Amino acid sequence: MGLRVRFNLVLTVVFLLGLALSGYVSYGLLQSNARADVVRNAELMIESARAIRSYTVEEIRPELAHHLDKVFLPQSVPAYAATNTLGRLPEEYAEYAYKEATLNPTNPRDRATDWEADLIREFQHGQDIKTLTGVRATPTGPSLYIASPLKVSAEACLTCHSTPEVAPASMLALYGDSNGFGWKLDEIVGAQVVSVPMSVPVANANRAFVTFMLSLCAVFLVLYVALNVMLNRMIIRPITEMSGQADAVSTGNFEIPEFAETKSDEIGRLAASFNRMRRSLEQAMKMID
Q1: What CA–CA distance (Å, rounded) separates 99 from 110?
Q2: Which residues lie below 8 Å from residue 243, measured CB to CB, with a gap of 6+?
Q3: What is residue 196's DSSP assignment?
Q4: CA–CA distance from 186 to each of 18, 139, 150, 233 (Å)?
Q5: pLDDT tens per residue across span 157-216
Q6: Which of 138, 190, 201, 218 has the fewest Cβ atoms within 10 angstroms?
Q7: Considering only CA atoms, which of 216, 220, 208 is closest in space to residue 28?
Q8: Is 143 exposed, middle or buried (0-12, 13-18, 19+ CB in 10 A)?
Q9: CA 189, 194, 197, 202 torsion-angle sign
Q10: What would the DSSP string read from start to end of 215-259?
Q11: Measuring CA to CA, which residue among 273, 279, 286, 271 is closest to residue 249?
């Protein structure tokens, strides 16, 4: 096996090991960054929902209070305001979803699905849990969700949700008296759930990974060619010429010119040593003759 073949074999093995390690680290980092990006979007949505709820309670409900005796206005309900506002996101964000999932809601659209009900029960069993995060499969791809518990933290909530007898007549006329009652103070009755699709950031991460790996391969090819050219000019060719001269001298042919000593590196010193050996051998042969 020649020197060039062994050099290229070692170079290829080192590159493949480096490529595998770089691929493993970069893929994990890109996927982690993609997930972090999705989490930030979800956190922004849930904080926006909380801001809408707060604004509704502090600014909207007082302005509509004098109408509530005659007609129930769902716009005065924080959950309704947050859900409807975030539901008007542009079409490109159609898969971004916000829901105030409730086990026993007044508005049927807020009724928790099976997986949302599991989250609520987990909050009920672990009162100290503030946030639940996970990924679930959807028809359009994986979706990350963030959920926070909804707790009955104010006596005012029980006006509409304790018993039908104390609930506003206008609300009963709109929603009936079968749902949304029996709530208790400090009880966790639901969860704020934000769902954000992961398909776009994951696809971006995958494209970045492919681009990075192709760039590494391109850099390797350039280095491979450059190192082989340098190896040929600085080592292989001088050694091959020296080997040819050694073969000629070994058969008694001293007519060929000495090897040029133009370098001060190891090859140059080897050439100088070879020329001295050749001259010594030539003199020894003359003495024998």
Answers
A1: 7
A2: none
A3: E
A4: 56, 36, 10, 82
A5: 777 888 888 888 878 888 888 888 888 888 899 999 998 888 888 888 999 999 999 999
A6: 218
A7: 208
A8: buried
A9: negative
A10: HHHHHHHHHHHHHHHHHIIIIIHHHHHHHHHHHHHHTT---SPPP
A11: 279
Residue corresponding to tokens 């000593």: 261
Question: Which residues constitute the domain of residue 124?
Answer: 42-202
- CATH number, domain of 284, equals 1.10.8.500
Cα–Cα distance for residue pair 199/208, rounded to 1 Å: 14
Q: What is the DSSP letter of 111?
A: B
Answer yes or no: do 135 and 240 share one domain: no
Residues 52 and 182 in one domain: yes
Residue type, 287: M
Q: What is the rounded average pLDDT for all residues in the chain? A: 83
198 with 235, same domain: the answer is no
Q: Which helix (H) or strand (E) holds 195?
A: strand 188-197
| 47 and 186 part of one domain | yes
Q: Which residue type is seen at 59?
A: E
Report pLDDT for 283.
74
Burial of 33 per CB tally in 10 Å (0-12, 13-18, 19+) = middle
The alpha-carbon radius of gyration of the chain (Å, integer) is: 39
Helix locations, the chain, DSSP H? 3-55, 61-64, 78-86, 114-125, 155-161, 169-175, 199-231, 237-250, 266-288
The residue assigned the tokens 């062994």 is 6
**Residue % of the chain over a pLDDT of 90:** 20
pLDDT, averaged in runs of 10, over the chain (289 residues):
78 90 92 88 88 87 74 82 85 81 89 92 87 87 89 80 82 83 88 88 90 92 88 78 74 67 69 76 70
136, two tokens: 């679930």
